[in-house]
Amino acid sequence: MNPFGSLQDYRLRPIPDQAGARLRKVGFRAHPINAAAERFAEPLEDARIAGLAGENAYYSSRTPPYYRRIDGAVEGLFLRRGVTARLVAVNARLAGAGLELFLFDGWRPRAVQAYFHDVWMPQHLAERQPGLEGAQLLAEVEKYWSAPSGTGEAGNEKSPAPHATGGATDLTLRWRGGAPLWMGSLFDDVTAIAHRDHFERGDDLSFSDFEARANRRLLHWVMADEGFIGHPDEWWHFSFGDQLWARLGGFEAALYGLSSPP
Q1: How far apart are CA 47 and CA 6, in angstroms?
Q2: pLDDT at 154 over 70
Q3: Interior CA angle at 77 toward 256 and 140, to 5°?
Q4: CB 3.0 to 4.6 Å from 18: which of 131, 183, 221, 232, for a disulfide?
Q5: In this predicted structure, what is the pLDDT of residue 156?
Q6: What pLDDT, in 10s, does the model give residues 116-153?
Q7: Which CATH code is given to the segment(s) 5-106+168-249?
Q8: Among the listed residues 55, 46, 62, 51, the one whose alpha carbon sits nearest the alpha carbon of residue 100
Q9: Phi, psi at residue 238, to the nearest 5°?
C-alpha cells in the first residue's frame, strides 16, 4: 500500500517549466502594494504557536553549509497570521499520509538579508566563478538573495525584500515528527540543482533524483492548492501576499508590505 495515499497523484504531476516565471520575476519589487488592503496590517505571529514544526535555519548552528548562527538572526518563525492559517490547512491535507511541513525560515531581519546579499553570496561566487563582476555578479547574487529592504534601488517601503513582509516562507516536507523527505539538494543550495523544475528536465534519472522529483512535486502542488506561489529557483521558497506572489500570480497588487514581529 502506498503511504502517500491520494497525495501520490501530486507526486506524479510535473511541475511546470519555470522559464516563464524567471522572466516574470525580473523587477518584481516594483510591483504595486495595496496599502489599503484589509490584510496589509495583518500581524506577524510565530507559526509554531499554531502547531507548525520548524527551526529557524539562520539561528541554528546545525544548518549546512554555514554551521553557525548568523549575526542578527532571530529564533522565531514569524509569518503573517493569514499565511500561518494557510500552512495549517496544508498540514491538514498532509496529515492523512503521516506528513507535515517543516519550516526553515519566515520573517527575516534586515541584518541577515544584508549579510547574505552583500557578503556571503558575493564571496561564494568569487571563489567559484572568479570572472563574475559588476552587474553580472549582482544578477547572479539576486537569483537567490534579494537586496535587503532599505538600501539601493529597493530603498523604501514600496519594495521590501520578500522575507521582510512575513508573506514568504522557506520549508520542506517531513514524516510527522521524523525524517525529512528527500528533495535532492540542501536548503539554501545556490546552484541550478535548487531550481524548482531541475529534476523535470530529462528522463534518465537516478533513483535518488526520481525520488527528489516526486517529493518536490508533492510540495509544490499541496502549497499551490492553498494559494502559495513558489520561487522558480528555490524549491523551498513559497510566497503568499508579497510582491513576488503578486507578480508571478498575475495579481494587480501585493497584499503585504514591510513588517516586523511584535
Answers
A1: 27
A2: no
A3: 70
A4: 232
A5: 59
A6: 899 888 888 888 888 888 888 888 888 888 888 865 44
A7: 3.30.1380.10
A8: 51
A9: -135, 145
Specify the length of the chain in residues.
262
Cβ neighbours around 193 below 10 Å, total: 15
Number of H helices, E strands in the chain: 8, 7
The arithmetic mean of pLDDT across residues 34-57, rounded, is 96
pLDDT per residue as tens digits for the range 159-171: 999 999 999 999 9
Which segments of 120-206 does DSSP mark as H helices, in order? Answer: 121-128, 134-141
Residue 254's nearest CA partner among 79, 35, 106 is 35
Q: What separation in angstroms does the CA of 242 have from each of 14, 17, 260?
A: 25, 22, 14
* Neighbour count for residue 20 (Cβ, 10 Å): 11
Matching residue, cell 527551526: 55
- Can you tell me whether residue 229 is helix, strand or coil? strand
N-terminal to C-terminal alpha carbon distance within the chain? 46
> Which residue is listed with cell 530603498?
155
| Amino acid identity at 149 | S
pTM of the model: 0.93
